[in-house]
Amino acid sequence: MELARDRCRYVLERHLTPRGLARIGQALLNREIAPGWIGEMLRPRVPAWEGVSYGHLWYVGEDGRATAMGNGGQRLFLLPDLDLVVVVPAGAYDEAGQDTAPRAVLEDVVLAAITRGDAR
Q1: What's the average model confidence in pLDDT over 108-115?
Q2: Alpha carbon distance 71, 94 (integer Å)
Q3: Measured between alpha carbons, how far is 120 from 114 in angstroms, rounded to an integer?
Q4: Which CATH superfamily is 15-116 part of?
Q5: Where would I find the H helices in 30-64?
Q6: Which residues lie below 8 Å from residue 101, measured CB to CB, with a gap of 6+?
Q7: Greatest extent of the chain over all pairs of C-alpha atoms, in Å
Q8: With contact defined as beta carbons under 8 Å apart, do 66 and 46 qualify?
Q9: In which domain of life is the source organism classified (predicted)?
Q10: What's the predicted TM-score (pTM) here?
């Protein structure tokens, strides 16, 4: 029993830099890694909330955008319509409302800058 718990902990405690996570996101967005598997992974399977379904470890919107969520507010957003990957590192571990800050970074900072035209 102890071995199973250790394996689960090992899988869950991955430590990536934001840049490393962005590289993974860009490879997924560009379908550079096993394209058939990426399609299956991002295929909506179970309704999560209005307009969003759950694939294999990803939340997928009706617009094709996808989000990987980690504890503490860690987020990897894939926005294929904008050819954009956004990584939000955070540290609100085990706290309620973990989605508030990452969602604000995406919507109020990144997407707002693109809409205003001052993204570089």
Answers
A1: 92
A2: 7
A3: 9
A4: DD-peptidase/beta-lactamase superfamily (3.40.710.10)
A5: 35-41
A6: 73, 88, 90, 92
A7: 55
A8: no
A9: Bacteria
A10: 0.80
